[in-house]
């Protein structure tokens, strides 16, 4: 809902617009690095002159809330956001945007549960969260992270692929914790799911149900330890059952989306279709099911499918997905407890805490 300007107010119109935009930025409607509406869009939205809008934009930039990029627009900067915050109760988090806008992250089935639990656990301790994105093309992530580290008490790295970012936090004496990293981390506390065991257990379930043509499906970078952990678990379960793992046993989808998985599996030849699939997340699993059912196959009578992360999609979709539960609530609670211990002065050796995933067995196996 668009806030309205009061043209009868003694406060100038540009000052009112400035207040509206700062409130939107500080509330998280526009995240760090995200583009705010253009001058023309603001003129149309609030029925203002170009001069009035430009005055508000100029003041936002002067106060550090935005930075202007020639011919591209104005983007939210971290400096202004942190002006009113105290270091004592702020925690930063770094994650991948994956092409989504800031306000779309909360609806993302893979990250929404994690973010929900992180925010809930932090709020219960009197802290709140600043979000930063490692794959924003408009940001120099090292410079931006350095700025954020100056104003936070601690930092959470979510699915990080770059240990240098954690090293930067250490150099600035900011306690940090890594949740489910996909690279080797030695200089921070780490809390993660035992990915190898998770995919061993998922694959073994399919083997025990009598499947012999089982395929692993992923969409992440193949050169990360996360990928290798999952494939190692899949391979171990297959080999223990005397089943061969070949190149065709490992499928890589171009992106984490239902449409990408659906497109890939709609093009498979009949002889290439396996009797069971284990995937890294529920989004890919749904894409596979959609493609196969459109080809006349029944789930799970003809093909069984296991998803990953046990998101809200798993129970909302029909048939309900069997999925690997990453125990997000427990992981985030442990990670935040360890982070707060560091913030309060703990000098213990860095810990690596593994949790075993569980299988939520439903209608697709």
CATH architecture designation of the largest domain: 3-Layer(aba) Sandwich
Given helix and strand content, the structural type is: alpha/beta
Give the helix proportion (percent range).
25-40%
Question: Sheet bearing the most strands, described?
Answer: 6 strands, parallel
How are strands sequenced across the largest beta sheet? 4-3-5-6-7-13
Task: Write the CATH homologous superfamily of the largest domain.
Answer: Response regulator
Summed over residues and divided by their number, the pLDDT gives a mean of 87
The CATH topology annotation of the largest domain reads as Rossmann fold
Helix-strand pattern, N to C? HHHEEHEHEHEHEEHEHEHEHEHEHEE
Please identify the top-level CATH class of the largest domain: Alpha Beta
Q: How far from one another are the termini?
A: 44 Å
- Report Rg: 24 Å
Q: Strand portion, in percent?
A: 15-25%
Number of H/I helices: 13
**Uncertain segments:** 98-107
Quickly count the domains.
3
Number of DSSP E strands: 14
Approximate shape: globular
